[in-house]
Amino acid sequence: MSTIKKIGVLTSGGDAPGMNAAIRSVVRACIYYSKEVIGIYNGYDGLITGDFGALEARSVANILHRGGTILKSARSEEFRTEEGRKKAHQNLLEAEIDALVVIGGDGTFTGARIFGEEYAFPILGLPGTIDNDLYGTDTTIGYDTATNTALHAIDMIRDTAMSHNRLFFIEVMGRDAGFIAVRSGIAGGAAAIVIPEEKMSTDELIAKLQPGRDSKKASNLVVVAEGGKSGSAAEIAEQINDKFPHYETKVTILGHIQRGGSPSCYDRVLASRMGLAAVEGLDQGEQGKMVGIVHNQILYTPFKTAIETEKAINPESLRLSKIMSI
Ligand code: F6P
Fold first, then answer.
1. Which residue is catalytic, options 131, 133, 144, 267?
2. What is the set of domains in the chain, with CATH numbers?
3. pLDDT at position 246
4. Among residues 16, 60, 97, 137, which is most buried (max CB within 10 A)?
């Protein structure tokens, strides 16, 4: 019989489509297993200020299809301090919360790991980030939706690029990871994909774009992941500009549109599976770990491993993109 009777749930860091589906899943799984569930607002800041509210099955009605997070999110500076974490712990004790489910990315799990070890407090994490940069899960909640949003934008840019003989540099999010760029770039037929994991010199990029120029391709799209050593889309465009005089060069930064919108079918199912696995995992004694799905199987990976192990871009994807862009 589990000693966990009351679970707190929060979302932290950058929001991601599917976070609401994850909250709903945690809430309904708790109720299914006769546990109380407490929503904590504004990420770890809410833990520190005691911004808590009880959630019922109906509190999470009609949120499955909504982007953002009903619990709101924050990147808490105070939770980085011992004093902040002490206040958070006191509030958890006062509210008689036995365990936490935190939904977020590597910053969220870093906080969870420190706090969990400091106070021997049971915590499981759900990977909620569009960046897909966490080891221990094939995909993170929000990644599928974000790549589809990016793809939709790329498709629209292609229409106008074609009509004007333009070379477009489209910058996508991902912080230090190129997952969004690679997936949306392949699906969007990019002539080149520039990612942080692979330094691409100006000469290499020119060589990639040259065949298109020689064969009088009407347009060329280059997808650039933010945060790369090769520079931003604007910087790369600047370096390439005069090498391709028959194209007009344009830059589009997709930005935060990639974080919003209704989650895809895939993200809703992923979030629902992971939320249930978090509640069942806590009951089985799992803690200090991230819930992931690898090869369609639920897996619990220690926070340290999930954060610190590099999740590599599949070399097959890069090979595919190269061959398809000739
Ligand atoms: O981690 C998610 C993410 O959207 C990154 O892709 C991006 O670099 C960052 O967050 C943007 O953060 P903010 O919303 O604080 O500008």
1. 131
2. 6-142+263-308 (3.40.50.450), 143-259 (3.40.50.460)
3. 77
4. 16
